[in-house]
Design a protein that fits this description.
about 15% helix, nine-stranded mixed sheet, about 160 residues, OB fold (Dihydrolipoamide Acetyltransferase, E2P), globular, about 45% strand, mainly beta
């Protein structure tokens, strides 16, 4: 039976929360667990709940100005030790670069400009929960200023001939 794939296109970098593609241990993470969270709109949050996901979170937060807002997100697990490991690609000026289990840690250390994300559910009968697992991701990083300047200066649009 095919699992339903949930897709989010052109996600702003600020909506990818707490990326841990490296799997480093922390206060909220066991060593080796790779994951991140995806910020949701209220509509997306309710759609995932209606689809049976038990993992979307909704927490009240405060802005620096002291105003309350609701932070909605879904944790997404990244598992390379599965029958269908995630396909993760970095979008560059030269095309796509495939990131593997080791190189995907770049996502943790770079500013994400935007991404497209696809995940599938995994249902656990014992705990009666449904968890999101990353299936595919295209990620574009913000360009470094010196690298961007170099590329513009040395690879301009065909002025040299």
């Amino acid at each position: 039976m095919a699992r339903e794939v949930v897709r989010f296109k052109d996600v702003a970098g600020k909506d990818i929360l707490w990326p841990n593609f490296e799997g480093r241990a922390g206060d909220y993470n066991n060593p080796g667990e790779r994951n991140f969270c995806l910020r949701l709109t209220e509509e997306e949050y309710h759609q995932l709940l209606d689809a049976g996901y038990t993992s979307p979170k909704e927490k009240v937060r405060m802005t620096e100005d002291g105003e309350e807002y609701v932070n909605r997100y879904i944790p997404i697990k990244v598992n390379f030790n599965s029958q269908r490991p995630p396909q993760i690609h970095q979008v560059t000026r030269r095309g796509l670069v495939k990131l593997d289990e080791d190189s995907c840690a770049l996502i943790d250390r770079n500013n994400i400009k935007k991404a497209s994300i696809a995940f599938t559910p995994y249902y656990r009968k014992v705990s009666n929960t449904q968890t999101a697992y990353l299936q595919e991701m295209l990620v574009e990083f913000e360009e470094e200023s010196f690298a961007d300047e170099y590329l513009n200066d040395h690879f301009s649009s065909g002025d040299e001939a």
